[in-house]
Amino acid sequence: MLDRLEDQFARRVRAELARAMRDMIDAYEYTGEVPLARDHIDRLTALYQAMAIATMAVFGGRVVQMGKDGGQALETKDFAATMARIALGYIASEMIRSRITYVANTTRQQIVNAVDRGYQEGLGQFGVAKLVRDAVPIMTTARAAMIARTETHGAANYGAFAAADETGLLLDKEWISAEDERTRDDHALANGQIVAKDVPFDIGGEAMMYPGDPGAEAAQVINCRCAMGFVVRD
Known about the structure:
two-stranded antiparallel ribbon; 234 residues; 6 helices
């Protein structure tokens, strides 16, 4: 499910990054300046909201279903609206808003760096603009995939955690690592770690409430593919 969500939103993130880059190149071509693209932060925020709402609905719903399967009587009438509210609150948090601003500023810096390289190659203003415009697909593909992977995984685990809070289920949580050569050593060592729902995991000495926790260092979050499982207490 995460792979499908990641692929879906990677395409949308890539389209927005490319649109913003082309707007900045167009402005540079005629003014010699590289401004931050108009509405880029607003459009990124809308994308992050869509990612969070879609992802939290799926993974929050899994927690509720797990409780029902365990024989718990849970009220789910307004669950979709509740998860949407939680998702919007998550995106409005200072940590996520800072990440959105960082993404937007990085988009602009990529164009500034590309323009500098064009000048170093001796190209004039219109030649530089063409060079950078042609490079947009290369500059956006891998980056969009990284953003979508990081944000959908973080939202999925946050949504599962929030749903557990909303239901009032007595749960322990388990860190589940992606078991392959790309997994960080800290995350591989944490595989199978079980703690109470409201207790942070110990990941390489850093306290993390869930995989993708935006309060953690970027080195523990970016491109993370770990998941969080729950165990209903008897």
